[in-house]
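Mods, move this if it's the wrong board.
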Amino acid sequence: MIRPLSIVRYERLYLASFVLGLVVTAMSWPERTAIVAANPVLAHVAWILPTFQVAGIAITLLLWYFTARVPSVVAKWVVVVLAALAVVGVVLSLATLTTGRTTIGTTSIVSFAADGVYVVAAILLFKPDAKLWFGELPESDTPNTFEDMPHDR
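Not the wrong board. Structure tokens:
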């Protein structure tokens, strides 16, 4: 099946969010390692931070594959739930900013951008052509919004 335009756009935004997330991780890595090192329990398991990062990358890429390349309704809903959690996280971060206990920095701005792009990508999964991609609409209700190019570009 040729991928619908909404799925192609979703893929681009999803991967852009992933790259922005990696930038945020790189920017905040020294702070995160310092927090782990300062904790007496976690100081002895310094491998935990890189392990969780690799696991997060693997999960992100699996979700990408099972939404943008091989349609899976389960993966779609996992992406949607994670997008909802991102919205909650942004709202909580903004609420913390209003208390004056923390300030906004470059890392926060890039993180908000990554979350915003992720949410927009998740919204694209509800377009009619994307619903068809996931098998959620019958063929007769199909809008003609498919891309005329191969799926592997």
